Amino acid sequence: MAPTPDWVKQLTPSGPQGSELLATERAKSDITVERLSQLLYTQEVLDRKKKIINVLKSEKVFDKSQNYFSGRIDRFETALARAKKLRNLRVKHEWNLDEYRTASEAISEPGPYGLHDSMFLITIAEQGTPEQHAQFLVKAEEYKFIGCYAQTELGHGSNVRGLETTATWNLEDKTFIIHSPYLTASKWWIGSLGKTANYAVVMAQLFIAGKSYGPHPFVVQIRDLKTHEPLENVHVGDIGPKFGYNTMDNGFLLFNKVKVPHISMLARFSRVDLDTNQYVREGSPSLVYGTLTWVRSTIVMQAGSVLARGVTIATRYCAVRRQFQDRDAPASEPGENQVLNYTMVQIRLLPLLAATFALHFTGKSMMNLYSENQKKMNAGEAKDNGRGAGPEEIQSGSDILADLHATSCGLKAYSSTIAAEGLEVCRRACGGHGYSSFSGIGPWYADYLPTTTWEGDNYMLTQQVARYLLKSARSVLSSSAPSNDTTSILSTFLSRSEIGCAFDVLGSDSDLVDAFAWRTAFLTFEALKHRDEQKKAWNDLLVDFYRLSKAHSQYMVVRNFYEALQSGETRAQIDDSTLDVLTKLFRLFALNTLEQEGSEFYASGAVTVKQISLARTNTVMKLLEEIRPHAVRLVDSWAFDDWVLDSSLGRQDGKVYEDMFYRASELNPLNSITVDPYPDSEVLFKKDDRRRSKL
Amino acid sequence: MAPTPDWVKQLTPSGPQGSELLATERAKSDITVERLSQLLYTQEVLDRKKKIINVLKSEKVFDKSQNYFSGRIDRFETALARAKKLRNLRVKHEWNLDEYRTASEAISEPGPYGLHDSMFLITIAEQGTPEQHAQFLVKAEEYKFIGCYAQTELGHGSNVRGLETTATWNLEDKTFIIHSPYLTASKWWIGSLGKTANYAVVMAQLFIAGKSYGPHPFVVQIRDLKTHEPLENVHVGDIGPKFGYNTMDNGFLLFNKVKVPHISMLARFSRVDLDTNQYVREGSPSLVYGTLTWVRSTIVMQAGSVLARGVTIATRYCAVRRQFQDRDAPASEPGENQVLNYTMVQIRLLPLLAATFALHFTGKSMMNLYSENQKKMNAGEAKDNGRGAGPEEIQSGSDILADLHATSCGLKAYSSTIAAEGLEVCRRACGGHGYSSFSGIGPWYADYLPTTTWEGDNYMLTQQVARYLLKSARSVLSSSAPSNDTTSILSTFLSRSEIGCAFDVLGSDSDLVDAFAWRTAFLTFEALKHRDEQKKAWNDLLVDFYRLSKAHSQYMVVRNFYEALQSGETRAQIDDSTLDVLTKLFRLFALNTLEQEGSEFYASGAVTVKQISLARTNTVMKLLEEIRPHAVRLVDSWAFDDWVLDSSLGRQDGKVYEDMFYRASELNPLNSITVDPYPDSEVLFKKDDRRRSKL
Question: Which residues form the Acyl-CoA oxidase/dehydrogenase middle domain (chains A, B) (predicted)?
Answer without folding.
Answer: 148-258
